[in-house]
Amino acid sequence: MGKFTESILEHHKDFILQQKLFFVSSAPLSENGHINLSPKGLDSFRVLSSNQVAYMDIIGSGNETAAHINENGRITFMFCSFDKVPNILRLYGKAKAVLPGS
């Protein structure tokens, strides 16, 4: 059964820092739109505080994540490990795009 916390605990941060790959998911408000789920990596994720994270969105096949963020701000990050101790950690939150020069 999943456990929910209101903030990123130290052991969560340690787990996040160990992962080489993570996933970003977003969705539009419209039922006709597409849910976007993208793998990310390249040392692009940072834990800024117990309730704030940042990542550099290196655009691949499109920019649906940014479009969804501008529409409704909803975002989910998922970190998973399949090592000796399998684990999944999800961060649910509100996002905003920060452009170069901001």
Protein model, in words:
It is a single chain. With 102 residues, the chain is an alpha+beta fold. The protein has a single domain, classed as Electron Transport, Fmn-binding Protein, Chain A (Pnp Oxidase, Chain A). 18% of the residues lie in helices and 34% in strands. It contains two helices and six strands. The strands form two sheets. A four-stranded antiparallel beta sheet has the order 2-1-5-6. Strands 3-4 form a two-stranded antiparallel sheet.
Helical fraction: 10-25%
Please describe the biggest sheet, giving its number of strands, its sense, and whether it closes into a barrel. 4 strands, antiparallel
Rounded to an integer in angstroms, the radius of gyration calculated over CA atoms is 14 Å
What letter string, H or E per element, gives the SSE order?
Answer: HEEEEHEE
Quote the average pLDDT: 90
Strands, count: 6
Q: Structural class of the helices, strands and pairings?
A: alpha+beta
Question: What is the strand content?
Answer: 25-35%
Instruction: Specify the CATH architecture.
Output: Roll
The tally of domains stands at 1
Calculate the terminal CA-CA distance, rounded to whole Å: 41 Å
Number of helices: 2
Q: Could you name the CATH topology?
A: Pnp Oxidase, Chain A
Query: Poorly predicted ranges (pLDDT <50, ≥5 residues)?
Result: none
Q: What is the CATH superfamily classification? A: Electron Transport, Fmn-binding Protein, Chain A
| CATH C-level class | Mainly Beta
Question: Which strand order do you get reading across the main beta sheet?
Answer: 2-1-5-6
Overall form:
globular
